[in-house]
Amino acid sequence: MSSTELELKLKIDAEAARRLRDKPALLKMALFQSSQSDLRSIYFDTADFRLRRKRASLRVRWDGRQWVQTLKRRTRLKHGLSNPVEIESIVQCSDVDIAGIDDPAHRSWLKKVVSGKRLSPVFETNMRRSTTLIDVGGTGTVEVVIDAGTVGNEERSHEFSEVELELKAGTAHAILTTSEILFDQECVAASDSSKAERGYALIAGAGNATQSAKSGRRFQKPALSVQTPMDEALKMIGRSAADQVLGNWDLLLGSDHPEVPHQLRVGLRRFRTALKIIKSSTGATDLQRLSKDARQLGRIVGRLRNADVLIDDIVMPVVRDTGKQVKHKPLLRFLEDERRQQRSLVRGQLESGRWAYLKLNCMLFNQAVERALKNQMPSGNPRELSAREMTRMWRAVEKGGCGFSENQIDERHELRKRLKSLRYAGDCFLPLYPADETKRFIGKLKRLQDIFGYLNDVAMANHLAQSIAKNHPDDTDLHKSLEAICEWHDHRTKAALPKAHKRWRNLLESPKFWHAREA
Fold first, then answer.
1. Which of 89, 102, 238, 255 ranks highest by number of CB atoms within 10 Å?
2. Can you give the pTM of this predicted structure?
3. Angle formed at CA 256 by CA 361 and CA 349, multiple of 5 degrees
4. Do 334 and 478 contact (CB within 8 A), yes or no?
5. DSSP annotation string for 79-118
6. What would the pLDDT profile of 54-66 be if each residue is shown by its tens digit?
7. Beta strands at 2-4 and 7-11: parallel, antiparallel or unpaired
């Protein structure tokens, strides 16, 4: 029997598993009483791991009544979500039986991959499983599975526990609704590996360890084309930002690299821009809470990012230029303490249940859009969407830039935010246009943003000086250090302002690529 699944896998500890099993919401939605079973699964592969290289797995599982053979293809997990193809067949013993696979296409594929090599047991799982079938308000049927057990072989093993939501019938967004109900105010973490991947990692000596990246996950442009259906285009735009959010969310829990909170905050801003595009083009209002949560989390992460900027972009350039590191040591110690505090606060927030709704909707963003659209197909094509949204955002930029030379710091900051929204939207739509039509405008936009960013950072340093003068009036070392640093940057600010005026005029005069002729 062959089928394609939609699954969400989440990591869960023993206490969270206990709470989930006893949760009134789960019991209320249950169609039947939860079942308990002990499962033993034996995973097979060739000596050179040909199935693993094809992102496939082959197992034989004893379910308490019979041996069931399962071939899984497309097993890769991304932010806990997978759409594997499963081919199941009954076998007579604990060994594999390729001939018993009743789907001829998959049977032929497996034979070709194995190419006559012997399939041998490589590891196995032994686990206790709790299974509950629930009805999600008439929108679908979802199987809730809680697994706890071990994976390994005779040489090594480790324990694991996870919860899996699998769509059995109905609309795909039933999984999203289920996760929102069951994990409200719970700390949720996407499973980054299937049971098969855990086993392979273990026998390779990787255990449970995950490799931490040195810097943040950057934005990947969605592969839009004029032919992309509009509903899919909107999903792709939001999903590209959601992927950036989720990637840096997990990285920040283990990395001190300053690029990680920066990319997380950028991802959250891109996500809000995507939600505005969806709302503007469809009228959908069901995503408003997402936008609000993204804004609030962005402010929290922004405090850590600001702490990084004050050290790396405000103080250290002065130290390198003047060679007077000793003079600024008290200030650097003060700022490092603030950065450590902010990093601890941000990590505490990211690991709390406060953001479960936001994180789950990022994981299942396609399903969030489907639920919000309510089966209504947006009209037009991505090129028309781009022209409409970029024009709307550009008008907001022009309005914010009126009286540019007279603008004060707060007005420049507001204009900077509008430029960012324009840039983030433009990044999504770039694949729709020839590079020579977009490169000049985006380049000028980036250069103007760079100057605005610097001016904003200097203003933040001046605010810090005022705060320290108020809260630490007797700390003369801090005052002298900040005074010297602000003076150093003030000279450069005076030179930056005329450049900002010039770059603003250049941007105004630059051809707008979204006005290009239709493809």
1. 238
2. 0.91
3. 40
4. yes
5. TTEE--EEEEEEESSSS--GGG---HHHHHHHHHHHTTPP
6. 999 999 999 999 9
7. unpaired
